[in-house]
Structure formats: C-alpha cells, structure tokens
Amino acid sequence: MSEQTAEEGTSQGPRVVVVGAGMAGVQTAVALREQGFRGRVTVIGAEPHQPYDRPPLSKAVLLGKAEGSAFDVDFESLGVELRLGCEVHGLRPDARELDTEAGSVPYDVLVLATGAEPITLPGTEGVPGVHLLRTLDDAERLRPVLTRQHDIVVVGAGWIGAEFATAAREAGCAVTVVEAADHPLAGALPTEVSAPMAAWYADSGAELRTRARVERVEPG
Ligand SMILES: Cc1cc2nc3c(=O)[nH]c(=O)nc-3n(C[C@H](O)[C@H](O)[C@H](O)COP(=O)(O)OP(=O)(O)OC[C@H]3O[C@@H](n4cnc5c(N)ncnc54)[C@H](O)[C@@H]3O)c2cc1C
User: Fold this and answer.
1) Binding site membership of 161 for ligand 1 (Cβ less than 6 Å)
2) Which of 121, 112, 118, 158 is nearest to 135 (CA)?
3) Which DSSP string do the residues of 77-134 spell out, in sequence order?
C-alpha cells in the first residue's frame, strides 16, 4: 500500500463512490487523498470484514500463522467513509444513484472495483467438502480442513492452486491437483516457462494430473 496523507476529507468537490473494498477500491480511495482530492469519498464493500489483502489467504492465513491481512490504512484520518457488509444491487445512471439493501447512495463519480469471481464447477454448490478459496471466510473455513489432514483434491494448477497445494502438504494432507491444460499456469505463462514448474508439485509430495478437465463432482 502506498504512503497515506494525513489530509482530512472535506465536503468540497464531487462525491466519489467506490464499489468494491479490495485492493483496487482501497488504493483508489487512498490515491485520491494522496493527490489532494478533497471531496467526499465513500468505499462500499459487500464483505463484512475490514478491507484486506488476498495473497496471505493462500499462505499465512490459511495455515493459521496470521489471523488476518487487513490493509494498513487509517480510513478515518483519510476522511474515507467505509460501508462494509453492504452489497450494491443496482445502478441507476440517470439518477446517479446506487441501490443497496440499506437504501440508495448518490454519487457524482462512480468507480467500479468489484474484482472477479472464481469459476465454479457445475453441481458443486452446497455440496459438503467442496470449498472455494477467495475470501477471508473461505480461508477460515479451510483451516480446519487442513488441520484434520483430509485427502484433498485441488482443481486448478494456477498460482492459487499451487499455493494451496503447498500449504496443504505442509499441513500433512494427501493432495491431488487436477488441471485441464497440459502444464501448470497455462493461462498465465508460456509453456517453456511454466512446464518445469510441474516439478514443484512432485517436490512438495502432491500428485499433479494434467489434461484432467473436471466433468462433474460427486460427494465424496
Ligand atoms: C487466495 C488468493 C491468493 C492470491 N495471491 C496473490 C499473490 O500472491 N500475488 C498477487 O499478485 N495476487 C494474488 N492474488 C490476486 C489478488 O488478490 C487480486 O488480483 C486482487 O485481490 C484484485 O483486487 P481487486 O480489488 O481488483 O478485486 P477483489 O479483491 O476481488 O475485490 C473486489 C471487492 O468488491 C466487492 N464487491 C463485488 N461486487 C460487489 C457489489 N455488488 N457490492 C459491493 N461490493 C462488491 C467484493 O466483495 C470484493 O471484496 C490472490 C488472490 C487470492 C484469492
């Protein structure tokens, strides 16, 4: 997180509303103040937690070595209003208003920093033992799974899959990673770079199965 200014927000200037309290949304609010913006700034986030960074979720937070990863930002002294646990359901551009469950929110300038959602697999919703890893709540739900040393299948040999597999091995779980492509990190890096990374899995004691696209998931 870049350096904050101690400048107080004032009601001079337009009202900026940022939807999404992740890295992009928070950094936008901080940067506005750093650059001297004095209008009202409101950050709205669907999650109830103090805004946090996601990378530790597949590392220290997952392994219980850190409780959280909240951004080191003093929103109050920056004069940035936080509305957490507040999902935005709709946008009415003509009226310059957002709709939330707590009522409508007017804006002059709107920043959409709503991030991305993981791809879910058909038939997995609500199935016991199936987890996503994206939020602090997900990481907290997964901690006891590691502690109980379950046999784990990880779908996806990207960065997060690799980190989760390593953490689960460290916790003593048996781990199989299934990946649709023929090598890890296929979406992120060219084959020459990423193919050797298959050895990471063997080194950590995880089994990597490539060209293994998941068709369906059954309980157990
Ligand atoms: C487990 C994990 C590990 C990672 N590790 C790394 C790493 O080591 N290195 C790295 O560079 N990147 C890593 N990443 C990726 C990095 O965290 C993302 O690139 C980053 O979080 C993107 O930030 P963002 O603000 O764009 O989106 P997000 O973090 O997705 O934030 C968007 C926010 O908007 C909120 N939102 C969405 N819709 C609404 C709505 N309608 N109303 C209100 N709020 C809404 C969401 O709840 C969310 O909190 C990791 C990601 C995960 C999940």
Assistant:
1) no
2) 118
3) HHTEEEEES--EEEEETTTTEEEETTEEEE-SEEEE-----PPPPTT-TT-TT----S
Is the C-beta atom of 58 inside 6 A of ligand 1?
Answer: yes
Fold of 16-112: FAD/NAD(P)-binding domain (3.50.50)
**Is 171 a pocket residue for ligand 1 (Cβ < 6 Å)?**
no
Q: In the chain, what are the domain boundaries?
A: 16-112, 136-209
**Measured from the CB, is residue 169 less than 6 Å from ligand 1?**
no
**Atom 38, ligand 1: which residue's CA is nearest?**
114
Identify which of 30, 114, 137, 146 to mutate to test ligand 1's pocket (most ligand atoms within 8 A of the CB): 114
Residue nearest to atom 28 of ligand 1 (CA): 115
CATH superfamily of 136-209: FAD/NAD(P)-binding domain (3.50.50.60)
The reply to whether domains 16-112 and 136-209 share a CATH topology is yes
What's the pLDDT tens digit per position in 61-115? 999 999 889 999 999 999 999 999 999 999 999 999 999 999 999 999 999 999 9
